[in-house]
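Structure tokens
________________
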Amino acid sequence: MAQAEHSVSVNANPGRTDVMGHLKKKKKKMKQMELEPQLKKIKAAKAKGARDLLVHIKQSHPPKFKSKLAEPAYDNIKQALRKASAEYHPDKQLQYDQKWQVLSGEISKAVNDVWADYCS
């Protein structure tokens, strides 16, 4: 019985992907340091509650991607959090500069944390 041949793809430069990943992480870390004052304000708004976080991010960092979800009523926090989560989701920000991608990623994390606290 003949043995099945297995083709194994070999990366021509296996260390290159590690280096590229490291450089991306380093750039992201640098952007986070650059955005530290803004991130502190987001954390402070998050600590005050869902409504304060939503007001802060909409005023200070209006979304570049507009969700198709309807504009929620002022008193519907759950719907507003859902919409903010869609508007600031990192997968929707890939066409924008890295600074905005990092900022929207941190906003998305804050919104998701508030959502988890609010809905539990």
